[in-house]
Write a structure and sequence with these properties.
The chain is built from five helices and five strands, in the order H-E-E-H-E-E-E-H-H-H. Helix 3 packs across helix 5 (about 145-165). By secondary structure, the chain is α+β, with helices and mostly antiparallel strands. The chain has a single domain (about 15-165), classed as Beta Polymerase, domain 2. The chain has helices spanning about 15-30, 60-75, 110-125, 125-140, 145-165, and strands at about 35-40, 50-60, 80, 90-95, 100-105. The longest helix is centred in the last third of the chain and has 20 residues, at about 145-165. About 25% of the residues are buried. It has a five-stranded mixed beta sheet with strand order 1-2-5-4-3, sandwiched between helices. The protein is about 50% helix and about 20% strand.
């Protein structure tokens, strides 16, 4: 059965959840970790979001990403495969509250860079953040049981914000 696209009000505990998860990931993956970044809507103060903490774990190389995958699985993360290209691997932990989606990314990857541009722009531009929240709430109704459709329908907005952020 398809999973419902659920958007909930901002939860003040999300940043603390991120820090706990980041500490666990740092301990699990060790010196392979260059950086751990909170991404997605839960990383934007005040933003309504899916109750899901999205995290990018930056590693030195694509080979380090591949080497880390078995460690993630052994720690109970569900592998979700390649995302965006052959270098990024996603993992879910659905049993945690809130749920977790972890992306292992090689250093310098454009997808990670775009996510940070988007996040930081929304953190510093309240009107854009408000517009994004309104779009997400509408799309969650329009695509209630179609997560891929929901994500695809946000793409033009996201690309526009990334383009604006890139010009700064």
């Amino acid at each position: 059965m398809p999973e419902r696209v659920e958007i909930v009000p901002y939860d003040e505990t999300w940043p603390a959840h991120f820090r706990e998860i980041a500490d666990d990931l740092d301990a699990l993956l060790g010196d392979r970790v260059l950086d751990i970044q909170h991404i997605g809507s839960t990383s934007i103060p005040g933003m309504a979001a899916k109750p899901l903490i999205d995290i990018d774990v930056i590693m030195p190389t694509a080979a380090d990403v591949i080497d880390a995958c078995p460690l993630m699985e052994a720690a109970g993360y569900e592998p979700r495969g390649n995302r965006y290209d052959a270098d990024i691997f996603a993992f879910m932990r659905r049993t945690a509250t809130p749920r977790q989606r972890i992306y292992l990314c090689p250093e310098g990857h454009d997808t990670h860079h775009r996510r940070i541009l988007f996040r930081d722009y929304l953190r510093t531009h309240p009107q854009a953040a408000s517009d994004y929240q309104a779009l997400k709430l509408k799309l969650a109704e329009d695509f209630e049981y179609d997560g891929d459709g929901y994500t695809a329908a946000k793409a033009a907005f996201v690309n526009d914000i990334v383009a604006r952020a890139s010009k700064r």
